[in-house]
Amino acid sequence: MNILVTGGAGFIGSHTVVSLVEAGFNPVIVDDFSNSEPSVLSGLKKIVGREVSCHVLDCNNYPAMRQILRDEKIAGVIHFAAFKAVGESMQEPLAYYRNNLGSLLTLVDAMLAEGISNLIFSSSCTVYGEPDTSPVTEQTPIKPAASVYGNTKQVGEEILRDVSAVKPLKSLSLRYFNPIGAHPSALIGELPRGVPSNLVPFVTQTAAGLRESLTIFGNDYPTPDGTCIRDFIHIMDLAEAHVAALQYALNKSESSFYDTFNLGTGQGNTVLELVKTFEKVSGKPLPYSIGPRREGDVVAVWADVKNRANYSAGKPGVRSRKRLRMPGAGSSVYRLYLRHDEPHRKSRSPGQRGVRPLHYRRRGERGGLCTGCCFAWPESRTYREDRFCC
């Protein structure tokens, strides 16, 4: 079954492509590479063992989108393609509205014209605005978005809800929180162009010496340490949840419906907790400074994920183990999962989860940064045997 993945060369899209192949689907990518790298395609080929079809195209091109949907015999679409930087959206609102909403309208119009009804929409927890309390459920009131980016996701959801009410469209909006980590092969990961807008790649680039210092935006929020609280979910858990949502839509007998699901861990941690945990795990200080608050940031938001059981998306972190460990409510240690499947098993073949990648330490080597899962091996330790990170 052929599934179109718009933005399929991006961070979340590329990992979802892998999960689609593992689930028996044939993904077809559409990406204009405005915020991704073509090298991702070679990484995908090595992971899945074959070429993944890719069309270099702007999703706002209606005739071309219709042609691809028809020629590739697409049965469903997962729509990631969008601009996504909160800070940038406040500076370039027209670009965000034109791209994020225009591409969605073009895609839905083309799908309906070609008789394709199954659509998974990449939404965001930003639709909740500044919630009164956390965790947030799918029934939490939607407040005015704190950023232009968040507003494009709010309006996108409204478009799908309204269209699904009167047209043969089965659509799901997945409201996910803060994806982190990488595929265990380290052949794909979060590869932002320019200065990262997300926290974890900025942390790891600073630790690796690519950035002089990390800036934490504000420490005067009403939280335990004054920094914002977020819900960090591993990218492979998020990718597999998209596949589960697609299967849920495909199995629905109704000709049209609309629903929303939160995708997070159900646990919030502060920005400073993540930084301090990275320092503790790596064994060395991370240079950082406190800057002013960033326009568009909410104080605290994390997910209530009980509704996820309705479509069997699984529990984030079930197969993930170790590394960044963070304090969490209700437990002495909360693990910020960075996906480590059978971390010390050596009999693996390329393409399998847990394949031995570049990020491991041989006997006699000292510590260093894992390029695949963002784990920093302690520099103070010399390893007496081969040890795998992920």
Account of the protein in words:
By secondary structure, the protein is of the alpha/beta class. It has a domain of 213 residues: NAD(P)-binding Rossmann-like Domain (Rossmann fold). Helix content is 30%, strand content 19%. The protein contains nine helices and 19 strands. It has a seven-stranded parallel beta sheet with strand order 3-2-1-4-5-6-11, sandwiched between helices. It has a two-stranded parallel sheet with strand order 7-10. It has a two-stranded parallel ribbon with strand order 8-13. α6 links the parallel β5 and β6. α1 runs parallel beside α2, α3 packs across α5 and α5 runs parallel beside α6. The longest helix has 21 residues.
What is the strand and helix layout of this fold?
Blueprint (H helix, E strand, L loop, with lengths): L1 E5 L4 H12 L3 E6 L7 H10 L5 E3 L5 H10 L2 E6 L6 H6 L1 H21 L4 E7 L23 H19 L3 E7 L1 E3 L18 H9 L6 E4 L11 E2 L1 E3 H17 L5 E7 L5 E2 H12 L5 E4 L33 E4 L2 E5 L24 E2 L6 E2 L6 E2 L9 E2 L2
Parallel strand pairs: 1-2, 1-4, 2-3, 4-5, 5-6, 6-11, 7-10, 8-13
Antiparallel strand pairs: 9-12, 14-15, 16-19, 17-18
Looking at the structure, the CATH topology of one domain is Rossmann fold
N-to-C span: 31 Å
| Coarse shape | globular
CATH architecture of one domain: 3-Layer(aba) Sandwich
How much β-strand is present in the residues? 15-25%
Rounded average pLDDT: 80
Largest sheet geometry:
7 strands, parallel
Number of strands: 19
- Share of helix among residues? 25-40%
**Number of helical elements:** 9
Structural class category: alpha/beta
CATH superfamily of one domain: NAD(P)-binding Rossmann-like Domain
The helix/strand order is: EHEHEHEHHEHEEHEEEHEEHEEEEEEE
As a whole number of angstroms, the C-alpha radius of gyration is 20 Å
Name the poorly predicted regions. Answer: 309-390
CATH C-level of one domain: Alpha Beta
Instruction: Trace the largest sheet across and list its strands.
Output: 3-2-1-4-5-6-11
Oligomeric state of the chains present here = single chain
